[in-house]
Each structure stands twice: as structure tokens, then as C-alpha cells.
Amino acid sequence: MKNRRALAVPALLLATSLAGGCAEQTVSRYPSLQPRAIERRSDAEAAAAAPAALPPDAALDATLATTAKTLADTDAAFGPAADGAERAARAARGGGVGSDRWIAAQTALAKLDAFRATTSASVTDLDELAIGRARDAKPPYPALESLKARGDAQLTAEITRIAAIQALLPAA
User: Fold this and answer.
1) How far apart are the C-alpha atoms of 15 and 13, rounded to whole Å?
2) 90 inside domain
3) Which range marks the domain in which residue 133 is found?
4) Residue 135 lies in a domain
5) How far is residue 56 from each of residues 70, 71, 147, measured CA to CA in Å?
6) Does residue 152 belong to any structural domain of this protein?
7) Is residue 6 part of a domain?
8) DSSP string over the chain
9) pLDDT 10s digits, 12-70
10) Fewer beta carbons below 10 Å: N end or C end of the chain?
11) What is the mean pLDDT of the segment spanning 112-124?
């Protein structure tokens, strides 16, 4: 039994020293792969505060009302004129370039182009108002942005419709 105890003590010391070798080293030749303190902080910008409500601009609101009426009137007149131009273009399909039907369709397209020009001028005016506000370091005006988006959509729709009608006609 004494013999066993004599062997147990050195074996226990050997096991303890080997287990100590498995413990974490505090100093190493290699850098740690853990994130550094600088990597733990965020570089994200703080969320911007909600913009304060803009005071009404009576002069701008009056200009926007006039432009909105112009856009609405142009849109109301464009639809029936485009329908008429499309009928004229379909009627001109069988005739050649320069025929009476072709000329009537071209005349109807010219009227549509006049409506498109009016819409384009209104959108340009709205763009200039927005640029002027930006130049003066004023925040975007929601009514202006909304009307500008509506005008852009109307202009795109008019251009698309005119191109579709023009595609029905024989090329000159």
C-alpha cells in the first residue's frame, strides 16, 4: 500500500503540472484574434432629428396652386386629344406618307406635343423653384416636392403616349 502511495504522489504532481500547461497563457507571441476596443465602437452617424414643421410660404403656395391648375388642365385636355390622335393614326395606317389621313394624324400629334410642352414648362418651373430653395439653404417644401413628382409622372405618361401613337404612323 505504501508503494501505491509513493507512486500516487509523483503521478499527482505530474498530472497537476500537465494540467497547468493547458491553462491559458497570458503572454503570447501572436496577437489575439478578439476584437480590439476600437473595433467595438460604432462609427455610424447619429440618427438625424425629425425636421421641424415648415412654416407656410404663402407666395410659394400661390405659385404651386397656379402650377397645379395648369397641370390639371393640361392633363384633362391631353386625354381626349390623345384618343383622337390615336384614332387618326389608326386611320392613317393604310395610307402613305403625305396622304390626307397621315397629315391629319400628324396635326393631331402636333396638338399633343403642345400639351406636352406645357407640362414640360410647368415641371421646369417646379424644378427651378426646388433649385432656388436648395440654393438658399432652405429645407425641401413638401407641397413642392409632391407637385413636382406628380408633374414628372404626368410628363412621362404624355411622352410615352405620344411615342406609342407616333409608332402607329408610317415613318416620313
Assistant:
1) 5
2) yes
3) 65-168
4) yes
5) 22, 22, 16
6) yes
7) no
8) -HHHHHHHHHHHHHHHHHHHHHSPPSS-SS---SPPHHHHS--PPPPPPPPPPPPP-HHHHHHHHHHHHHHHHHHHHHHHHHHHHHHHHHHTSSS-TTSHHHHHHHHHHHHHHHHHHHHHHHHHHHHHHHHHHHHTTPPPPHHHHHHHHHHHHHHHHHHHHHHHHHHHSPP-
9) 666 666 666 665 656 678 877 888 888 888 778 877 766 667 778 888 889 999 999 99
10) N
11) 96
Residue 4, CA atoms < 13 Å, CB-side half-sphere: 1
Tell me the chain's radius of gyration from C-alpha atoms: 39
All cell numbers assigned to 102: 397621315
Between the two ends of the chain, the Cα-to-Cα distance in Å is: 118
- Residue 144 C-alpha cell reads as 413642392
Residue 26 has phi, psi (to 5 degrees) of -90, -25
Q: How many residues does the chain have?
A: 172
